[in-house]
Amino acid sequence: MANPSMHEQAGSGSPGAGLSEFAGSIQGDTPQIGHAHPRVPDAIERRYLKVDDRYFFPDRTLAFIDDGSRIRVRTENREVMHSVIAIAEARGWRVIELRGTEAFRQGMWREAALRGIEAQGYAPIEAEFRQAERARNRNQPVEASVDRDGAREPRSRRDGPRPPINGVLVAAAAAPYQFHPEQRMSFYVTVRTEVGERMIWGADLERALAESASQPRIGDAIVLTQHGTHPVNLRVPARNDAGELIGERKIVAQRARWRIETPEHLRELQRQARLLRTGEILAAASLDNSPTLATAAAGLKLAEQYARRVTVDGPSQERLVEAIRERMAAAVEQGHTLHLPERKMRPSQRQVRQRGGRRREEPIHERS
Question: Hey, how many other C-beta atoms are within 10 angstroms of the C-beta on 217?
Fold first, then answer.
């Protein structure tokens, strides 16, 4: 039985709604004779909530409407585009016609190109052809940058770290990965950016939010940054050729490490790093109010003392101090805590007691 609330939320997604209220649509050609294709792949059926011909995200937001020979898509969400092209491939559509926004047609063209489907209605530039060709030929795992409600943006690890994501923190919670009930528990954050909402999945996001120095809350502006990866051992479902679950298998995966801070906090870290790099830190009037700056100033003095001990050459001393200064500034800019080396007490400073309990450094008072 259909859920009435879903029909209400579909709103303009009713069969008579105009295409202007959707991101776009695709029209498929006739499947080859003699080929039986499933109407919708099982993986797609499990990923969305289906009511009649409508497919919804887990939060009951309309994703797309399947009219049979045409699929109307409500959003420019990349995961939805990926799903729609998977449906087209399952039906044997070798040519599709695209209508809708520029971003929608561009995204659909790329998804179709990756599966060898001809997409009409978008004129790609030469660079897009080359990117699609490289993506088809690339036979290696990809990481998923997940946009709103599970949109996945494939990126090869060769492409380097992701650029920072700037926006407003909309949501953050633990859930089965991409809300699929059969997936392992993960964590996601939703960020409202200038180009729309993005949902990013990552087990390390929970730690990044809990250990954030600025402790942003829902509704605060944040900067989400990935700082490399680290290997982790995981158990993942093992399936046979028919897709049936037959057990688990161990894999070594690269888990992204994240950082979540407010823009104000990052600007303050940059200011402190600048004071350290320029040498203005020693004259800063706020040392008492900033433990980080105070520690950095003390660290610079120790660096100068160390440089004088290891070399008598003036230029060499300056280069050594400058190298230490830059490493400290980079650590401050990344939000790391500075730790000064422990100073070992010289033998003359130790409180060594003599006979009678008197310490060596205590004066001996003799009668005159």
Answer: 11
How far is residue 308 from each of residues 227, 304, 329, 346, measured CA to CA in Å? 36, 6, 21, 18
Does residue 303 contact residue 227 with C-beta atoms inside 8 Å?
Answer: no
How far is residue 103's CA from residue 289's CA, in Å, rounded to a whole number? 49
Strands 70-73, 95-100: pairing kind? unpaired
Count of Cβ atoms closer than 10 Å to residue 96 Cβ: 24
Distance in angstroms (rounded) separating the CA atoms of residues 265 and 282? 22
Query: What are residue 54's DSSP bridge partners?
Result: 51, 65
Q: Parallel, antiparallel, or unpaired: how do β-strands 118-120 and 95-100 relate? A: parallel
**Which two three-digit tokens encode residue 97?**
């016609």
Model-level pTM greater than 0.70? no
At 283 the pLDDT is 57
Which pLDDT tens digit goes with each residue over 46-72? 778 888 889 988 778 889 999 888 999
Sign of CA pseudo-dihedral 180, 186, 192, 194: negative
Per-residue pLDDT at 130? 81
CA 155 to each of CA 135, 144, 162, 178: distance values in angstroms, whole numbers, following the listed order: 9, 7, 9, 17
DSSP-assigned letters across all residues of 269-307: HHHHHHHHHHTGGGG-TTGGG-HHHHHHHHHHHHHHHHH
